[in-house]
Amino acid sequence: MSKSSSGSSWPFYNHAENKPAKYLPTNMFSRQETAALTQQFWTRFGQYMAPVPAAGGGKVNWINYKTGVKDLQFKMELDAAGAHIGIVITATDERRRAALFQQLLACRNILEAKTQEVWDWQPDGRNAQAQIMSRIETHLAAVHVYKQADWPAIISFFKARMMALDEFWEEVQPGFEQ
């Protein structure tokens, strides 16, 4: 996956033009329609994933996955550039953010073995609000929440990677406990 010229690829934000790269106009839908489609997608995804047990055998809220580590989240997002999933480190303290990133970097082989793909590692990225964060991510391009025909591909993309992230986290979480 290639980074944009700003060094950030999540959510593929083009800071020069102040909009997501590969911009898909969202003005073809009203704000209410946009919110309704997005809510429908996440509801459907949640229903689809509800019976899937966590790697440890228990129940898990796949949409709001709790890592148990402050400032470290598993995040799924949909935007004009596609579907994104990753591990996001939001610590405002630069040393803490760097330490968490280094801990994850030490587990890179395990993550990439569980997901069976190479992920993009960004120690100093920015989100759409220009907040500094670290992230490890992958994406599925050319899909959109507004196209219900894309939903099966998006759900499959998120499901496989969230389950792999859960297996990864089951294995490495003890090293991150505070």
Order of helices and strands: EEHEEHHEEH
Kindly estimate the percentage of residues that lie in beta strands according to DSSP. Answer: 15-25%
Helix content: 25-40%
Instruction: Please give the order of strands in the largest beta sheet.
Output: 3-4-6-5
- Characterize the largest beta sheet: strand count, sense, and whether it forms a barrel: 4 strands, antiparallel
Assign the structural class, choosing from mainly alpha, mainly beta, alpha/beta, alpha+beta, or little secondary structure: alpha+beta
Our count of helices gives 4
Q: Rg, please?
A: 16 Å
Low-confidence stretches: 1-24
Shape: globular
Structure description:
The two termini are 32 Å apart. It is built from four helices and six strands. Helix 3 runs antiparallel to helix 4 (151-172). It is 35% helix and 21% strand. It has helices at residues 31-49, 94-106, 108-115, 151-172; strands spanning 13-14, 19-20, 72-79, 82-89, 120-126, 132-141. By secondary structure, the protein is of the alpha+beta class. Strand 3 (72-79) and strand 4 form a beta hairpin. Strands 3-4-6-5 form a four-stranded antiparallel beta sheet, with helices on one face. The chain is globular, with a radius of gyration of 16 Å.
Short description:
The chain is of the alpha+beta class. It has helices at residues 31-49, 94-106, 108-115, 151-172, and strands spanning 13-14, 19-20, 72-79, 82-89, 120-126, 132-141.
